[in-house]
Amino acid sequence: MAPQIGPHELLHVFSFLEAPDLLRAAQVNKVWNEISVTQELWRQLCLRRWASCKAFPVVLGTQTWRQYYLCRSELEFRVASGRSQDFTCKAISGHTGKIDQLAYISPHEYRFDERARSVVCTVSSDCTVRAWDLREGTEIWSSPVQPAPLVSLVAYPLLQLVVTVDTQGLITGWKAETGSEWASFRLPTSCSSMEACGHPEGPFLMVACADGNLYTLTVPQLQVLSKVVTFPHTSMTLTCSPDQQWVFVLAKGSDVGPKVFYVQSLLNPSEDIPVSTTLPVRLSSRVCWAPNEAARLTVMHRDDRGMHLVITTFILKASKSRDRVSILAQQLASFILPDTMNPHLMQAHGSQVLLLTSRSELLLFTIDGVHLIAFQDHQRPITSMWVVNSWHVLRYSGFTHVKSDSRSIAGVEARSNGTSILRSYCYKVQLR
């Protein structure tokens, strides 16, 4: 009689199987069924398929790794199919002015139990910030009317905090669960850009002031950690790297090269001079970070003669010695765009591919300039773009802003009377 394979040997064999094979193995007998649902088997499957699982772990007590894998696979199938029966669409109104920005405040990107909700906050020219339940299509709370129109906001889902700024430079933190005010800070002038950042030392807020100063504030207290003059008397835009170690600062409409700051030097007030470098490009217009790389930055700019659009990708490195830190910006790739193109949106897709929109076209290029494919299925110019995951890219015409928490999509739709509404698409996936 041949010896039976023990549980440890079966577990080792099952570790080489893919999800469909494990599901079939579970139907053989009771022993195989028990081993096929081992948490570690499904955790490894999730990590192999979705690297983001390391950043967004399974919410303990609400779902197993097996449930997570099956639900997320089903969600991606429904997103890709585009079938009307796979989602519910709602038009959500409430603001009496134009919605200027939205941000998700949902604390978990992938959660499929009955307590999971997709919640967004919006700011509007009607001087209010509001929170919305996208699946129900209802308003959760609205702030009191503020002294000036609110123009931008960022969210800290894990802190359940929303931070807004108005046209006069007043920054306010709001408790996302109730809408009550948490803290405030007034800039000397208006704000030109604001970015929520996380860090091992704790979350913080980056704010670019219209006078050219870059503020770093604590969260949620909104107290000044540092203030740096970057581009005097010039409005700026900010964007933080995925690993939150770098912040890119671009002077709007300026011929001066953009700067990259080493975040650690901004968080440490004892440093006299923040560590930064100026990139060797001019007339920059677009920038994006590669989501799968710690410090890979792509910039759209003009060539030395100002005649052609160029896309250049850099790798950033921090060189530390005993008493100082220096930044090395190494050029990785560069190419000239065709003169017929005038891209207005750019995003990185993985580490080697760039997404560009030119009027109604979506074009894919490698970072070396190889044109991969062009999608021409839009009738009107593409106004918003959002990368849901490695396979799915959302492209919209007529929406001024689009964001997604993967279970839902929220877009701002402008009305002819100068107001805006939210348009939500919530996918039907249940924990099994």
From TrEMBL:
Keyword Metal-binding in annotation: no
Annotated ranges, domain F-box: 1-45
GO cellular component: cytoplasm
UniProt-listed SUPFAM superfamilies: F-box domain, Quinoprotein alcohol dehydrogenase-like
UniProt key word Nucleotide-binding: no
Pfam families found in the cross-reference section: F-box-like (PF12937)
Transmembrane segments: none
Top-level taxon: Eukaryota
Keywords, in A-Z order: Ubl conjugation pathway
This protein's pathway: Protein modification; protein ubiquitination
Protein name from the UniProt record: F-box domain-containing protein
